[in-house]
Amino acid sequence: MVYSVALDSEKELFVVLLKNVKNIPEVRKMVIGGSIQCCILKPSLIVDPLQIAVAAKKAVLNEQQNKMATKSLYTEILFNLSLSKNITQSLIKFGISDTDKNAVVCVIGKNEEELEKVLSHFQCDKPSGDQLFLPDNSLIKKEYKITGVETEVSSLLGSVVSRIAAKDFVSL
Amino acid sequence: MLLKQGAEAKIYKSEYLGCPCIVKERFVKKYRHPELDSHLTKERIKAECRAIVRCKAAGIRTPTLYGVDLAKRCIYMEYIENAKTLKECISNAVNNTEHADGNKDFIGPILERIGVFIGRMHSSNIIHGDLTTSNILLVGDLRSEDLQIIFIDFGLSSADESAEDKGVDLYVLERAIISAHTLKENVFNVILKAYAKEYKKGSSEVLRKLDEVRSRGRKRLMVG
Ligand SMILES: Nc1ncnc2c1ncn2[C@@H]1O[C@H](COP(=O)(O)OP(=O)(O)OP(=O)(O)O)[C@@H](O)[C@H]1O
Ligand SMILES: [Mg+2]
Questions:
Q1: Percentage of residues in chain A with pLDDT exceeding 70?
Q2: Phi-psi region of B179 (alpha: psi -120 to 50; beta: other; left: phi over 0)
Q3: Closest-CA residue to A141 (of A120, A110, A163)
Q4: From CA B81, how far away is CA B75, in angstroms rounded?
């Protein structure tokens, strides 16, 4: 299943979960080298596609207003997802690493063909069913500094999304 | 869709990334110096975002924050479906003549829970800054324990330890509850009792300050 949402009048965000990817080191090199345009996230840190959408929308807005902290929309998404102000750490934390088996792939483009093009480089199981994410809730709570009292009044997604949106003004 | 045009902001209902949302757009105040105006507006937006997140961390329900656009002076947040303000709920109950007197009984338990939340807020040093009954939303059956209580409108909030500012928060709410609805004075004691129980370390000093603020308020009324 592919998740998609409009980020503005021209750009759409596409997100898909890939399982048992066999060539992560290879695609990771291609992304870093610029031969494929996408960002690949660690599935364990993603609660819901909305989390990525909020980070991506913020990246698009920062790009329009020339306020990006990083060099590209895709690194900006990774940076926005993290609460850290340290770019390198954010990219390492939320970006896929060579030892991961599963991957969340995000593409910003005009249509789904752009996603298909990117996906053609991955050797993995066929995307199946409705499953979009494989969150590790305790890891997510640790990463976003969410404690027990908060989970009584807010969904995990609500807590995470609010922190991403307010990152520039809040330190917890 | 425009929901409300306040003194500071327009409130719209819209959609953000497919989710029903509230857009709070703070408008330009022409009588203010443009730079000062833009600075103040940004500060309020930042204060609102900070408080929304810090309240959650302290165990107080607030709308989910979706996005901020400082250039457009907008905050995008979760639209709370089927919400009524505390103000609407109290005045419905007070004005409802069809029912017998006992009908107001449900207000007590709600105020008690509100007292707990304000205690949490203040023990985390979050000053609301405009704690009126229009800025507390209720969702669900008023007589049920599952009733949800959501705090909104944090544009005047600050992070402060000041017992005085906390006392003013309580005073503002007390005036809003008692004067606007002609409820008995002791209704507010329900809030204060729950507040003190939740905020063990600092509440006695805040309650002293509340007394000071009250007497200043009365003097002001007498002087006219
Ligand atoms: N997230 C929300 N979900 C549902 N309704 C909301 C939400 N936020 C605000 N409202 C409604 O809109 C009204 C006004 O919102 P709010 O208090 O934030 O703005 P305001 O009072 O105009 O701001 P200010 O005090 O700065 O003038 C609320 O009393 C409530 O009825
Ligand atoms: Mg208000």
A1: 98
A2: alpha
A3: A163
A4: 18
Do the chains contact at B67 and A61, CB–CB below 8 Å? yes
pLDDT of res. B101: 47
d(CA B109, CA B171): 20
* Mean pLDDT over each residue of chain A, to the nearest integer: 94
Residue having the nearest C-alpha atom to atom 22 of ligand 1: B6
CB within 8 Å: B66 and A165: yes
Per the residue annotation, which of B37, B69, B101, B130 is the catalytic one?
B130
Provide, as residue numbers in chain B, all residues whose Cβ is less than 8 Å from the Cβ of A168: 68
DSSP reduced 3-state for A68: coil
Among B49, B52, B56, pick the best mutation site for testing chain A contact (most A Cβ within 10 A).
B56
Percent of chain A at pLDDT > 90 equals 92
Does the domain at A3-166 match CATH 1.10.287.90? Answer given as no
The partner residue sitting opposite B17, judged by closest CB among A50, A152, A153, is: A50
- B195 contacts B116 by C-beta, under 8 angstroms: yes
Task: Decide if B69 is catalytic.
Answer: no
Domain B2-78 has CATH 3.30.200.20: yes
Q: So where are chain A's domains?
A: 3-166
Q: Which of A57, A58, A169 sits opposite B50 (nearest CB)?
A: A169
Task: Provide the CA A85 distance to its chain's centre, in angstroms.
Answer: 17
Contacts of A165 in chain B (CB under 8 A): 49, 65-68, 76
This prediction's pTM = 0.94
- The burial class, CB within 10 Å (0-12 / 13-18 / 19+), for A48 is middle
Q: pLDDT, tens digit, for every residue of B147-166?
A: 999 999 999 999 999 999 99
Q: Which residue out of A14, A160, A162 would a mutagenesis test of the B interface target, given it has the greatest number of B Cβ atoms within 10 Å? A: A162
Could you read off the pLDDT of A126-140 as tens digits, one per residue? 777 667 789 999 999
**Domain boundaries defined on chain B:** 2-78, 84-223
**What kind of fold does domain B84-223 have according to CATH?**
Transferase(Phosphotransferase); domain 1 (1.10.510)
ipTM of the complex: 0.95
pLDDT band at A171 (very low <50, low <70, confident <90, very high): confident
Cross-chain Cβ contact A165/B65 below 8 Å: yes
Q: How confident is the model at residue B209 (pLDDT cuts 50, 70, 90)?
A: very high
